From TrEMBL:
Protein name (record): Carbamoyltransferase C-terminal domain-containing protein
Domain Carbamoyltransferase C-terminal: 384-553
Pfam family, one: Carbam_trans_C
Domain Carbamoyltransferase as annotated: residue spans: 14-335
Length: 553
């Protein structure tokens, strides 16, 4: 049995994606943005669907079921119109009515499929949070677990709690929009001058520069397993009165780092969120006596809060889907039919699910652009020496990662041994704010020398405090509050990346490299060798490794 899962709703969506599963095994997944080069692309993922078919060398007629991780679009607009009439959503009613009409015509999934000549055997739409949940459930080792799906909004829902027993899910609580943790954090993001539903991670990075100056409990608190968000105040907020101060949303994102009130707002917003989330999760872990939890939904990418949960609740298992935002629902949608027929099995999540390019394709690309290149026998050792020489390298290997984190196949890598390296990469490669932190990739076997609490974090989705005795060895990846967002690299999961770090360890005595996504500001991560070449020559990158080939300027 072959299924393709799709994340696509229409106008209000983001992160369109597709995934393919065969006989219950996830085999390939890719976001549309990687192929169109349009960040967070919300368009119908025709290229992602074709990439799934190309990977398996099949036609759409051979796919048994095409599953969408959303109900039909008309349900979204019908519910939005209802919320507007109730005064819970402040949007343009005539535009909503027009969008509802479009959802029945030009944005209707069946009409879109017809326009692309796609005629699958079966089309299924499933609940949005259920699609998120099935992107998590098969990858939890424990027989009994709790799964928390938390985002801005599905059709009605904003938070759903599931009890997993074996490979069955029971919904035990649902909290509906606009009572939404995603709304809370998005509006706090906007109040700091960043783009909501896009730049939330900037608030996490800014928070350690501030202090807990503002009481935000009137905007967010949790009681008896239910969070309460003051959406009447927060939705599209432009100004907040907080503890005798008036905070006004700035017009751009360059202000926050130099504004004490905005730094403090970011800190206070993150702190209040962590407390509310922890209280929410603890209510259910205590109620059911379960220490294994899973999480997805865009809020699941708040790695700072995730690390706080892990420490505060002493969790035995905590799996957050690395593709936690809506692109990850393509995974859950693809796996859903196998749950239905009882053939879905537990497995370990493998994030390297995207496209891979042979040395022949890479060399053809290098020849096309008439570049000087060398084929290297021992790529990892050569790259490690360049790192030791303080060169910033582009590292393009194997299959593309699925999700927003660069996990060593499409990464920009450098030496973490000096704080100046962070400033250099921010300035001449990423073209972004100098205060923004970078993540360490470290050998799994050596992680306990650098992390106070975390033993394993292969998907770079938890933060932890650095051990003081070794923090000075890697200043480029330790944030201002002494925390890191680590990736612990396992040899079995990514052999070439592990070997690179190990070779650098032999030279430098440091089993850690500084890792960031292989892209420029405002762009999706690179996918094709051409993307890597273009990024290399339009940035301060100094060495590029494409498979077994080395390119220098």
């Amino acid at each position: 049995m072959i299924t393709i899962g799709v994340n696509y709703i229409g106008g209000p969506g983001h992160d369109s994606a597709a995934a393919i599963a065969v006989d219950g095994k996830l085999e390939f997944a890719i976001a549309e943005e990687r192929l169109t080069r349009n960040k967070q692309d919300a368009s119908f993922p025709i290229q992602a669907i074709q990439a799934c078919l190309d990977y398996k060398k099949i036609m759409i007629e051979e796919v048994d079921e095409l599953v969408f991780g959303w109900p039909e679009l008309k349900e979204h607009y019908a519910n939005s119109l209802k919320l507007n009439m109730m005064g819970k959503l402040h949007e343009n009613i005539p535009m909503q009515a027009l969008n509802y009409f479009r959802s029945l015509t030009t944005r209707n999934v069946k009409n879109l499929l017809d326009s692309y000549g796609i005629k699958p055997k079966k089309i299924t739409h499933i609940d949005h949070h259920l699609a998120h949940a099935w992107s998590v459930a098969p990858f939890l080792a424990a027989e009994d677990s709790l799964i928390f799906i938390i985002d801005g909004r599905g059709i009605k829902e904003s938070t759903t709690v599931y009890l997993k027993k074996g490979m069955k899910l029971e919904m035990i609580e649902r909290i509906n929009f606009p009572n939404s943790l995603g709304v809370y954090y998005a509006e706090m993001t906007s109040m700091c001058g960043f783009r909501k539903y896009s730049d939330e991670w900037k608030v996490m990075g800014l928070a350690p520069f501030g202090k807990n100056s503002f009481d935000l409990s009137h905007l967010l608190h949790t009681d008896n397993g239910i969070h309460h968000v003051n959406h009447k105040t927060l939705l599209n907020v432009e100004k907040l009165e907080l503890d005798g101060k008036t905070i006004t949303r700035p017009e751009n994102d360059e202000v926050a780092i130099n504004d004490e009130d905005l730094r403090d707002l970011a800190h206070s917003a993150q702190d209040q969120y962590e407390k509310a989330l922890c209280k929410l999760v603890k209510f259910y872990t205590d109620k059911f006596g379960i220490k294994s939890i899973g999480m997805a939904g865009g809020v699941g990418l708040n790695c700072k809060a995730n690390g706080f949960l892990m420490r505060e609740l002493s969790l035995e298992e905590f799996f957050i889907q690395p593709a936690a935002t809506d692109d990850g629902t393509a995974i859950g949608a693809a796996l859903y039919p196998f749950m239905e027929n009882g053939t879905l099995k537990k497995s370990v999540f493998y994030p390297y699910l995207g496209k891979e390019y042979s040395d022949e394709v890479i060399e053809a690309t290098l020849k096309k652009y008439r570049l000087n290149y060398t084929k290297i026998k021992e790529v990892e050792a050569d790259a490690a020496q360049e790192l030791a020489n303080n060169k910033i390298i582009g590292w393009f290997q194997g299959r593309d990662e699925f999700g927003p984190r660069a996990l060593g196949n499409r990464s920009i890598i450098s030496n973490p041994g000096t704080s100046e390296m962070k400033d250099k990469v921010n300035e001449v490669v990423k073209y972004r704010e100098g205060w923004r932190p970078f993540a360490p990739s470290m050998l799994q076997e050596e992680a306990n020398k650098f992390l106070q609490n975390i033993k394993s974090s292969p998907y770079m989705i938890l933060t932890d405090y650095a051990k003081e005795e070794n923090a000075a060895k890697i200043p480029a990846v330790v944030h201002v509050d002494g925390t890191m967002r680590p990736q612990t690299v396992e040899k079995e999961m990514n052999t070439r990346y592990w070997n690179l770090i190990n070779e650098f360890y032999k030279i430098s005595g440091i089993p850690v490299v500084m890792n960031t996504s292989f892209n420029l500001k405002g762009e999706p991560n690179v996918c094709h060798p051409t993307d890597a070449v273009r990024t290399f020559f339009t940035s301060g990158l100094e060495v590029l490794y494409l498979g077994n080939y080395k390119v220098q300027k």
